[in-house]
C-alpha cells in the first residue's frame, strides 16, 4: 500500500517540468526551514552559537599562535640581543678553525694551544662592502665591548656599592637607530659624554639621570681578554713587556744580534757615542735618499727574518713612522737622556723598556667622566640581558674622551715618577727625559687619523624579512648557511672572521615551545570538534525524531528522498554558515587587537589578517561539523517507512528494531576489522613514525605522535572506565536520595528514567567524560611537568645563585677576591648567605691534561669513563639539598649532616682516617710492576735506571654515580682503581648517589657521569701528571706552566675554579638578589663569567607554563559551554520522549517540583559519575606520563592537583547539569495534564 501510493506521487511528479520541479522544491525547502526556525528558535540558536563559538575560538587561537614567531623573536632578543649575525675576528693562527658557529657561542680561546700573539679587529668597511652584495643582509653596525668599574664621585650619600662592575659598550647610535638594531629600546642619538646606564647599576650607586659618574677602565684587563701571549699572567707590566719583546726587541735582535736589547752600557760609553749619533742622524735628515735606503734596508732584514707576519707588519709600521720624522730630534732627546746618566751608571734598552712599561701600565688604568642620559630598566634586545650592568656610549665621543683621559693619566704618572722615584734612579731619569708635550701631541695626531668605525671588535648584522626566517629550524639553518656561504664565497674560506648566530641559537628553545603549543591547539581542536559534532548531531537527531510525521507527509506528497537529504543538510547549514561568518568576523576583530598588541610589543610588523591556516580551519570546521553531524540523522530519516512516519502516536522510545544480518556472509567482521585496523595503526606509528621522528630530529612529528598516543590513551581509558558508569550512577543516586530523604519515594521512577534514557545519556556522558578527562590530564600533566622542568633547572644549576665560567674561559673565577666579598657580606648580614662553595675546573678541561679518565675494580675489568671534578667539603651545604638523592655510604666514614638531616656523602671524601698513603717509586716506562723485580732486572742487565724517583702513592677518595655499581662493578665496600692517562691511582669509593646538584649523576648504567674528588686529591693528580707543583711553577710541561701562571692569584690549592654555588639563609626579594648579584659581578674577570639567579629563573619558567594553564582554562570554559547545550539538548529529548509518562505522573498526584527534581537527580547522578570517572582517568594518564618523564630525570614524584581546571570542569559540569535539566523540564512543567498527555505542547 505504502509503495503503491509513493509510486503514484512519483509518476505525477514526472509530468512537471524540470525548472518547475526545482523551483517548487526549493520553495518548499526554504519555507519549511524558515517556519521550523520560527517554530523552534532554540535549536537554531544553539546550533548557531555552537558553530560560532567553536569557529571563533579555534580560529582565534590558531591565528594568534601563527604570530608566535614574533613573540619568540622578542623573547630571544631579550636573551641574546637583537643581532642576527655577529662577525668576530679570528687571529691568523686560528684561521683553519670553523668560521661558522650555529651552536653554542664559544670563544676562540683554546688554552691547550699557544693561542694568539696579537690583537685582531673586524674590518668593518670591508664587511659592509661585501654584505651589500648579499641579498639576505639588510645592514650592519660596529660595536666595541670592554669592562670597567662604574663609580659615583658624590660623597656623603648612601650607596649599596662603592663601585659597580659594568660592561662599557661603544656603539654607533645613529646607525643602529637607522637600521633598527635594538629597535624596541626607545632611545635617541647619544651625544658628547652622555651614556645609557642600566637602572640596577644606578640604584647600586644611588645615582640618577643627569649625574656625573666615573668609569674606571683597565685597558690591560680588556686586552688580556682578547690577547693571550706566552708570558701573559694578568700582570700589566709583564703584559706590556711581552708586547715589547714580540714587536720591538725581537726585530731589533734580528738586525743587531742576540741580546742586543739586554746589552748593558755605562754612562761614559754612551756619552762618547751620543755626539756621533747626532751627527749621523743629521746627515740622514739632510739626505732623504740615504734615509729611505736605510729604512728599506732595515725593512728588508725584517721581512727576510723568521718572525711572524704580525711582527713584520708592526716592525715595518714602526720604521715608517720613525723615518718619516726628524731623526735628529730623537737623537738629541736620546743625548739629553744620556747626559743625565752618571759615568758609572749601567743601563740597557731592556731596563729603559721596563720603566716605560711601568709608566704605560700605570697609565692604562684611567677614569673617564660620563653623564647619565637615560636609565635603562630592560635592554629589550639592544644587548643581551645576561650581560648585567651596561654603560653605553657613542663611539664618536668615545675616541676623544678615552684619549684625553689616557693623556691626563699618563701625564700624572710621569709627574709622579719624577717626584717620587729615588734620586738619580733610572725611573727618575727616564721620567724627566720623556718629552711629554711632544708625546701628547703625537698621540693626538695619531688618534685623529684613526677611523674607529672602520675597525670594530664585532660587526652586528641585521637580515631582511626577519620573521619568515625564524618560523622554523629549517628556515633558520637555510638562511644561516646561505649567508655564510655567500660571504665566504666572496672573501675566501680563510678570511679572519667567525660568524655566530646568537639570536638563532636563543630562538631554538622557543621553537620547541612553539611545537609544543601547536600540539596543544590540535588537542583542543580535537576535543571541541568531538563536543560540537555530538551537540549538532543531538540537535539534528532530535529534530528528525520529532518530525517523523512531517517528513512522512512530505514524502506522501511526492517529496523524494534525495530532496529530503538536501533539506536536512540545508537545515544544518542555516546555522552553520551564519555561525561561520559571525565567528570569522569576531575572530578578525579580536585577532586585530591581539596583533596590534604583539606588533607594538615586538616592534615587528606582519599582517592584521586572519592567518590562512586559521581560515582553512574555520571553513573546515564550519562545513565538516554539520556534514558529520547529519550522517546518522539522514540515515534515521530515510530508514522510516511511510506507515511508521505517519503514525502520530509513535515514540522513539517504543521502537523495537530487530535486524539480524550475518556480516561474515558478506565477508565483513566488525570486530575483526577494527582490531586489525588498530594493530596496523599501532605498528605504523611504532615502526615508522617514531623512528622517523628521531632519525630526522623532527621534534614536531615526535610531539604529534606523542599527542596522538595520549589522546588515544585517554579515549581508551575512558571507554574502559565507562563500564563502571551505570553502577556508579545508581550508587550516587542512592547516596543523593539518602541525603534528600523526602524524595526517597521517587527512587524507582528515577531508576526507570536512567534505564529508559541509557542510549542517549551514554553518548552524552561519554563525551563529557572524555572532555573532562582530557582537561584534567592537561591541567595535572602540565602542572606536574612544570614541576619537573623547574626541578631539572634547579638541579642542573645547583644553588640559589650559581656563578659559572664558560668552558672557553679556562682561567675561571677570581676566587680570592670573591671570597673576600662573600665573607664581608656574611659579616655584615649573617642571615643572607647560608653557605657558599667553589668547585674546580673539570680535570679533563685543564689544558695539557688527559681528556679521558676511567675507573675500574682492582681486576682492571670492567672499566668505565668518568669526568673528575674537585669540590670543597661544604659543597652540598651550599647547594639545594632537595635535589640530592644519596644511595650508599661507606660505613667506615663519619659524615656531616645537612640541614634536612640527610648525611652529607660528599663530605666523606675529606675523611682520610683509614686511607693508606705510602712511599712509592715511579717508573715512567712502566717496564715492570714490582719494585723488587724492577731493581733486580736493572742490576742483572746492567741497565741504567730511567728517571726513577720516590713519590707518595696517595689513595684517592671519590664519589661516583649509583649507575657505576652495575657498569664498572664498583661500590663503597670494595677498593677500585682510577686511570688518568697511563697512571693508576688506588681509589676509595666513599659514597654513591643518584643525584648531586650541579653535576651529572644517574642510577642508570649507560650514563657517563661525574666523579667528585677533594681539592687535595685533584692537586695531587695534576702535580703527579705534570711532575711538579702547579703552585710553584716548576712543571716539566712548559705550556702547562704558562697556563697555571696565567690564573688569578691566591687560588686555593692553586686550582682554577669555574663554579661558585651560593645558598641563601633566608627568603630574599628579587631586588635584594639583584643588588647582591651586581655587587658580586664586580669581581668577574670578563664577559665569559655568567651569573644565574636560580630563584628568578624558576619563577620565569613557572610563569611561562602558567600561560598554558590559562589556555586550558579557556578551553575548559568553551568545553563546559558546549557541554551545557549538549546536556540541555539531551535532557529536552529525554523529557519529550517521556512526556506521556510525565503527564501520567502528574495525574496520579506528583507535583511539578517533584517531577523537576526527578530529572535534576538524574542529571546530577549522571554528571557526577562521569565527572568522577573523567577526573580519575585524567589524573591516571597525567601521572603515567609524569612517571615516564621521571624515569629519565630520576626525581621524586610530586602530585599536583589542577584545582582551577577541576573547579571549572567538574563543578561547572555539576551546575550545568542542574541548570540544563531544570530548563528542559521548564518547557512542559506548566502545561496542563491533558495537553501533555495529548502531546500538544
TrEMBL record:
The keyword Transmembrane helix applies. GO terms for cellular component: plasma membrane. It comes from the Eukaryota. It is found in: Cell membrane. Residues 524-641, 1114-1232 form the ABC3 transporter permease C-terminal domain. Keywords: Cell membrane, Membrane, Transmembrane, Transmembrane helix. The chain crosses the membrane at residues 12-34, 46-65, 520-541, 562-594, 614-635, 673-695, 701-724, 766-784, 1105-1132, 1159-1185, 1205-1225. This is ABC3 transporter permease C-terminal domain-containing protein. It comes from Paramecium octaurelia.
Amino acid at each position: 500500500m505504502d509503495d503503491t501510493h509513493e509510486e503514484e506521487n512519483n509518476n505525477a511528479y514526472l509530468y512537471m517540468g524540470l525548472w518547475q520541479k526545482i523551483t517548487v522544491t526549493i520553495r518548499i525547502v526554504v519555507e519549511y526551514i524558515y517556519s521550523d526556525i520560527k517554530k523552534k528558535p532554540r535549536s537554531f540558536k544553539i546550533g548557531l552559537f555552537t558553530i560560532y563559538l567553536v569557529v571563533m575560538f579555534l580560529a582565534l587561537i590558531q591565528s594568534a599562535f601563527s604570530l608566535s614567531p614574533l613573540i619568540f623573536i622578542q623573547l630571544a632578543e631579550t636573551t641574546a640581543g637583537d643581532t642576527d649575525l655577529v662577525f668576530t675576528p679570528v687571529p691568523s693562527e686560528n684561521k683553519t678553525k670553523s668560521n661558522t658557529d650555529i651552536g653554542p657561542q664559544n670563544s676562540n680561546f683554546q688554552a691547550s694551544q699557544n693561542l694568539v700573539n696579537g690583537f685582531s679587529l673586524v674590518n668593518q668597511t670591508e664587511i659592509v662592502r661585501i654584505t651589500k652584495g648579499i641579498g639576505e643582509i639588510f645592514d650592519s653596525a660596529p660595536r666595541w665591548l670592554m669592562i670597567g668599574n662604574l663609580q659615583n664621585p658624590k660623597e656623603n650619600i648612601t650607596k649599596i656599592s662603592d663601585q659597580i662592575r659594568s660592561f662599557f659598550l661603544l656603539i654607533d647610535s645613529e646607525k643602529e637607530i637607522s637600521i633598527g638594531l635594538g629597535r624596541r629600546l626607545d632611545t635617541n642619538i647619544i651625544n658628547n659624554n652622555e651614556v645609557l646606564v642600566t637602572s640596577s647599576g644606578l640604584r647600586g650607586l644611588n645615582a640618577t639621570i643627569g649625574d656625573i659618574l666615573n668609569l674606571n677602565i683597565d685597558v690591560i684587563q680588556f686586552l688580556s681578554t682578547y690577547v693571550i701571549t706566552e708570558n701573559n699572567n694578568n700582570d700589566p707590566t709583564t703584559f706590556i713587556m711581552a708586547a715589547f719583546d714580540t714587536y720591538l726587541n725581537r726585530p731589533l735582535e734580528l738586525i743587531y744580534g742576540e741580546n742586543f736589547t739586554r746589552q748593558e752600557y755605562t754612562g761614559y760609553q754612551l756619552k762618547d757615542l751620543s755626539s756621533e749619533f747626532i751627527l749621523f742622524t743629521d746627515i740622514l735628515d739632510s739626505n732623504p735618499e740615504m734615509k729611505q735606503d736605510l729604512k728599506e734596508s732595515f725593512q728588508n732584514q725584517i721581512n727576510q727574518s723568521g718572525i711572524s707576519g704580525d711582527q713584520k707588519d708592526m716592525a715595518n709600521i714602526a720604521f715608517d713612522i720613525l723615518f718619516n720624522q726628524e731623526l735628529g730630534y730623537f737623537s738629541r732627546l736620546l743625548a739629553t737622556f744620556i747626559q743625565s746618566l752618571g759615568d758609572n751608571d749601567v743601563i740597557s734598552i731592556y731596563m729603559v723598556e721596563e720603566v716605560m712599561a711601568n709608566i704605560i701600565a700605570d697609565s692604562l688604568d684611567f677614569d673617564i667622566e660620563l653623564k647619565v642620559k637615560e636609565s635603562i630598566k630592560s635592554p629589550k634586545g639592544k644587548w643581551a640581558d645576561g650581560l648585567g650592568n651596561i654603560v653605553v656610549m657613542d663611539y664618536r665621543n668615545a675616541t676623544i674622551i678615552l684619549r684625553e683621559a689616557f693623556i691626563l693619566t699618563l701625564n700624572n704618572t710621569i709627574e709622579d715618577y719624577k717626584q717620587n722615584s729615588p734620586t738619580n734612579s733610572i725611573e727618575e731619569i727616564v721620567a724627566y727625559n720623556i718629552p711629554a708635550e711632544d708625546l701628547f701631541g703625537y698621540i693626538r695626531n695619531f688618534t685623529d687619523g684613526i677611523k674607529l668605525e672602520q675597525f670594530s671588535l664585532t660587526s652586528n648584522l641585521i637580515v631582511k624579512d626577519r620573521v619568515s626566517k625564524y618560523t622554523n629550524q629549517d628556515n633558520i639553518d637555510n638562511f644561516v648557511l646561505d649567508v655564510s656561504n655567500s660571504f665566504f664565497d666572496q672573501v675566501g674560506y680563510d678570511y679572519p672572521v667567525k660568524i655566530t648566530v646568537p639570536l638563532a641559537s636563543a630562538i631554538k628553545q622557543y621553537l620547541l615551545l612553539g611545537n609544543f603549543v601547536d600540539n596543544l591547539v590540535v588537542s583542543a581542536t580535537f576535543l571541541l570538534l568531538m563536543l560540537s559534532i555530538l551537540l549538532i548531531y543531538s540537535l539534528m537527531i532530535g529534530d528528525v525524531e520529532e518530525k517523523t510525521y512531517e517528513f512522512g507527509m512530505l514524502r506522501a506528497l511526492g517529496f523524494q528522498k534525495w530532496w529530503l537529504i538536501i533539506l536536512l543538510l540545508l537545515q544544518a547549514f542555516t546555522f552553520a554558515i551564519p555561525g561561520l561568518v559571525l565567528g570569522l568576523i569576531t575572530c578578525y576583530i579580536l585577532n586585530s587587537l591581539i596583533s596590534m598588541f604583539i606588533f607594538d610589543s615586538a616592534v615587528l610588523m606582519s599582517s592584521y589578517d586572519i592567518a590562512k591556516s586559521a581560515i582553512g580551519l574555520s571553513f573546515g570546521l564550519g562545513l565538516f561539523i554539520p556534514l558529520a553531524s547529519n550522517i546518522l540523522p539522514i540515515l534515521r530519516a530515510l530508514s522510516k517507512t511511510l506507515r511508521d512516519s505517519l503514525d502520530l502516536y509513535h515514540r522513539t522510545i517504543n521502537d523495537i528494531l530487530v535486524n539480524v544480518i550475518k556480516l561474515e556472509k558478506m565477508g565483513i567482521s566488525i570486530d575483526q576489522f577494527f582490531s586489525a585496523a588498530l594493530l596496523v595503526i599501532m605498528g605504523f606509528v611504532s615502526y615508522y613514525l617514531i623512528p622517523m621522528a628521531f632519525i630526522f630530529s623532527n621534534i614536531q612529528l615526535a610531539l604529534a605522535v606523542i599527542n596522538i598516543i595520549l589522546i588515544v590513551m585517554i579515549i581508551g581509558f575512558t571507554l574502559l572506565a565507562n563500564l563502571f558508569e551505570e553502577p556508579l550512577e545508581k550508587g550516587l543516586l542512592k547516596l543523593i536520595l539518602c541525603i534528600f530523604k523526602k524524595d526517597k519515594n521517587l527512587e524507582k521512577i528515577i531508576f526507570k528514567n536512567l534505564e529508559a534514557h541509557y542510549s542517549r545519556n551514554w553518548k552524552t556522558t561519554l563525551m563529557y567524560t572524555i572532555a573532562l578527562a582530557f582537561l584534567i590530564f592537561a591541567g595535572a600533566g602540565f602542572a606536574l611537568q612544570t614541576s619537573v622542568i623547574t626541578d631539572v633547572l634547579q638541579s642542573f644549576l645547583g644553588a640559589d645563585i650559581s656563578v659559572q665560567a664558560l668552558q672557553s674561559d679556562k682561567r675561571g673565577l677570581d676566587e680570592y677576591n670573591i671570597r673576600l666579598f662573600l665573607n664581608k657580606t656574611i659579616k655584615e648580614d649573617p642571615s643572607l648567605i647560608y653557605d657558599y662553595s667553589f668547585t674546580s675546573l673539570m680535570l679533563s678541561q685543564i689544558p695539557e691534561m688527559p681528556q679521558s679518565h676511567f675507573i675500574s675494580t682492582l681486576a682492571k675489568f670492567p672499566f668505565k669513563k668518568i669526568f673528575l671534578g674537585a669540590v670543597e667539603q661544604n659543597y652540598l651545604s651550599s647547594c639545594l639539598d632537595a635535589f640530592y638523592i644519596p644511595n650508599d655510604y661507606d660505613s667506615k666514614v663519619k659524615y656531616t649532616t645537612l640541614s634536612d638531616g640527610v648525611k652529607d656523602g660528599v663530605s666523606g671524601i675529606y675523611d682520610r682516617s683509614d686511607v693508606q698513603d705510602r712511599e712509592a717509586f715511579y717508573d715512567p716506562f712502566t717496564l715492570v710492576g714490582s719494585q723488587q723485580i724492577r731493581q733486580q732486572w736493572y742490576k742483572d742487565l746492567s741497565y741504567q735506571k730511567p728517571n726513577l724517583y720516590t713519590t707518595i702513592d696517595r689513595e684517592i677518595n671519590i664519589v661516583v654515580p649509583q649507575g657505576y655499581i652495575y657498569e664498572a662493578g664498583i661500590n663503597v665496600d670494595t677498593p677500585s682503581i682510577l686511570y688518568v692517562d697511563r697512571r693508576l691511582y688506588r681509589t676509595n669509593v666513599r659514597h654513591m648517589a643518584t643525584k648531586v646538584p650541579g653535576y651529572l649523576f644517574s642510577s642508570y648504567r649507560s650514563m657517563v657521569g661525574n666523579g667528585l674528588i677533594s681539592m687535595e686529591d685533584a692537586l695531587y693528580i695534576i702535580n703527579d701528571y705534570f711532575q711538579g707543583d702547579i703552585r710553584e711553577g716548576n712543571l716539566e710541561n712548559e705550556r702547562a706552566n704558562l697556563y697555571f701562571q696565567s690564573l688569578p692569584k691566591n687560588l686555593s690549592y692553586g686550582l682554577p675554579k669555574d663554579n661558585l654555588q651560593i645558598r641563601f639563609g633566608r627568603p630574599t626579594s628579587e631586588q635584594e638578589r639583584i643588588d647582591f648579584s651586581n655587587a658580586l659581578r664586580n669581581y668577574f674577570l670578563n664577559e665569559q663569567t655568567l651569573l644565574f639567579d636560580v630563584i628568578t629563573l624558576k619563577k620565569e619558567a613557572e610563569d611561562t607554563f602558567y600561560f598554558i594553564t590559562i589556555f586550558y582554562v579557556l578551553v575548559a570554559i568553551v568545553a563546559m559551554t558546549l557541554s551545557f547545550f549538549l546536556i540541555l539538548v539531551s535532557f529536552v529529548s529525554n523529557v519529550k520522549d517521556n512526556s506521556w509518562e510525565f503527564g501520567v505522573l502528574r495525574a496520579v498526584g506528583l507535583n511539578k517540583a517533584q517531577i523537576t527534581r526527578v530529572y535534576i537527580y538524574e542529571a546530577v547522578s549522571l554528571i557526577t559519575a562521569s565527572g568522577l570517572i573523567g577526573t580519575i582517568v585524567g589524573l591516571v594518564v597525567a601521572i603515567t606520563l609524569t612517571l615516564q618523564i621521571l624515569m629519565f630525570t630520576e626525581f621524586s614524584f610530586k602530585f599536583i592537583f589542577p584545582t582551577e581546571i577541576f573547579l571549572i570542569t567538574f563543578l561547572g559540569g555539576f551546575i550545568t547539569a542542574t541548570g540544563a535539566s531544570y530548563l528542559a523540564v521548564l518547557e512542559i512543567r506548566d502545561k496542563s495534564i491533558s495537553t501533555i498527555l495529548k502531546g500538544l505542547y
